[in-house]
Amino acid sequence: MNWMRERWSIEDGFDLDVFLARPLVAHLATTGPTVRPIWFLWEEDTFWWLTGSSWSNLAEYLARDPHASVVVDSCDLTTGEVKRVTARGVAEIVAFDQERAHRKLERYLGGDDSTWDPRFTAETFGDPTARLGRLQPVTLNARDISFQVHANA
C-alpha cells in the first residue's frame, strides 16, 4: 500500500481504483479560480492529464501556484449510483510521455488509434509543447452516496 493512501479517507467498500478506471470527466481546480474539465489517467496513485501551450494555459496557472484540487464524480439517477472522489495536492507539469498519453486517450477513445479524431493524434503527439500534468493527492476522500431507486406506483 502506498504510504500516502494511509492518509486518505476511502469509505469502506469503495473501490477507488475501479472507480477511477472508468472514463469519467474530472474537474481540475487551480487558484484564480480556474476550473477545467479534464480526461485523466489514474496510475501510480496519481492523476495524469494532457496539456500543452497551444490548447491550455494550465501550466501558467500552476507555475504561479501549484496547489490544485481534482473532483471526479458520477450521478446516475436511473440506478441511484452517486459516487465522488475529491483530491488535493501540489500539481506539476512534467515531460511528455507518449505511452502514458496513449493509455490515457485510449480510455476515452478506444484501443484503435486509427479511428481517433485526428485532432487527438496531431495535437497531442505532434505538438512539441505537449506535456503531462500530474497530481499525486496529499488528501483524498472517496464516498459512495448512492441511493435506492423506487419505481413510481
Query: From N to C, what is the helix and strand string?
Result: EHEEEEHEEHHEE
Main beta sheet strand tally, sense and closure: 9 strands, mixed
* Shape call: globular
Low-confidence parts: none
Q: Strand fraction band?
A: 35-45%
Residue share in helix: 10-25%
Mean pLDDT level: 91
Write down the Rg: 17 Å
Total number of helical segments? 4
The total count of strands amounts to 9
Would you write up a description of this structure?
- This protein is α+β, with helices and mostly antiparallel strands and 153 residues long.
- Helix content is 21%, strand content 38%.
- A hairpin with a 4-residue loop joins strand 6 and strand 7.
List the keywords.
153 residues, alpha+beta, 9-stranded mixed β-sheet, globular
TL;DR?
The protein is of the alpha+beta class. 21% of the residues lie in helices and 38% in strands.
Present the secondary structure layout.
Blueprint: E1 9-10, H1 16-20, E2 25-30, E3 34-39, E4 41-43, E5 46-51, H2 58-64, E6 67-76, E7 81-94, H3 98-109, H4 118-125, E8 131-135, E9 139-144
Parallel strand pairs: 1-9
Antiparallel strand pairs: 2-3, 2-6, 4-5, 5-8, 6-7, 7-8, 7-9
